[in-house]
Design goal:
This protein is an alpha/beta fold. It is 44% helix and 17% strand. The relative contact order is 0.18.
Amino acid sequence: MTQRILVINPNSTQAVTDGIDRALQPLRLAGGPLFECVTLREGPPGIQSQRDVDGVVGPLTRLIGERQTDCDAFVIACYSDPGLHSAREVTRKPVLGISECGVLTALTLGHRFGVIAILAASIPRHLRYLGAMGVSSRLAAELPVGLQVTELADADRTRQRLIDTGRRLVDEHGAHVIVMGCAGMAQYRQPLEDALGVPVVEPTQAAAGMAWTRVRLA
């Protein structure tokens, strides 16, 4: 029976889901688990506040509960990891959050990591999470690009903002590795890495890779 990993975009912007789907293409291997990317229609256009995070927990966990019979693992593709611990209570299948997985991956690639956020308002929420993970001492800095989630589809502007912000993290704050702090940035990982000359972690790829391993070794 084919194994399946469900990757859930908790916001309602289909363009973000499409970008995530494209970013997972290198992980789609013959005989390996299938990756199915879905959009949480009940979600807001972008998850940019604590209220947004809290608001998707109910529909997100319901979806995971409904799909646990035909899926072998779940990835919550939002950098705030909304509902991660609640979801782990409704299924015995692996549930991975992209923020947790992205940061853990970054710790294997360099001593100090920098995070590129979408908005300045997102940063306090992310810092609370890093504190809960116990990794704050390894954070070089987190800086915003100043774009809404729905604006990330503007390729030229987004790419340049990411590069400019990434350079500040490396040159001014001493980051050895960069974590992209939004699933909507997925398509820009390689150009950003090429421009900065340091490893860049796209967290959905990191989480999907971990889910792939968990499923294959189960």
